[in-house]
């Protein structure tokens, strides 16, 4: 009887931890207008002890759910007609990001776990550096024009697609500055455009991961993933409501430090895996 009660207590603690962890991640991401997947991945690898590839797949699945909700919510801040008027930007970035997502997922499934840990750590450090630079101001206009702009957009999209697949993230921290600096898009529209690009990009990466045996983790950890995704959505909404309550001069460096510390831990991580 005591063992049954202990099992129930452990199960409840696990559920609370998964929802609570997702909520914290969502708040952190919401404060800077992101989905929080960059913060979720180190949590999955560290405290929850998922192998790197399974952590990426879980992160990708949860990111898909969070981004789908975020895209609906963002239409209030950026009307649909404003987004449609920038269809060329979306198509340009997707021309590269869809292929990049497939290639990134293929690479992740072939890498040794130790190498994948190291690669994840490096990419987290790069994103930390981007966050440290803070929010970009809107550009006066597109940096390039014609064929040069299209090629630059496709190449940027490809690189973003690779990174998004390798980390299981939406890639907003890369897409938003690309939309602003390369295409001269207003920052409010850039946030919605990044979601419009990242959703199909993630679906392509997800489709590639579905061909790997590690994809079974979605079934094994389905309740965990559902609770963490729900927590992430609630947290993202809370974070968006708190947006502006913390000075950017403080917020961005703090979040960058959190990611950098996470990168160091992932680099050094060799712990036991909970799900195998």
Percentage beta strand: under 5%
Largest sheet: none
Unreliable stretches (pLDDT < 50, length at least 5) are: 1-11
The overall pLDDT, averaged over residues, is: 80
> Helix and strand succession?
HHHHHHHHHHHH
Structural topology:
Layout: H1 2-31, H2 37-45, H3 52-74, H4 80-84, H5 87-110, H6 113-132, H7 146-167, H8 172-181, H9 187-209, H10 217-220, H11 222-241, H12 248-268
Structure at a glance:
Helices cover 76% and strands 0% of the residues. With 276 residues, the chain is an all-alpha fold.
Textual characterization of the structure:
The radius of gyration is 18 Å and the shape is globular. The longest helix has 30 residues, at 2-31. It has one domain. By secondary structure, the chain is mainly α. The two termini are 28 Å apart. Mean pLDDT is 80; it is low at 1-11. Helix content is 76%, strand content 0%.
Please describe the structure with a list of short key phrases separated by commas or semicolons.
single chain, 276 residues, mainly alpha, 76% helix
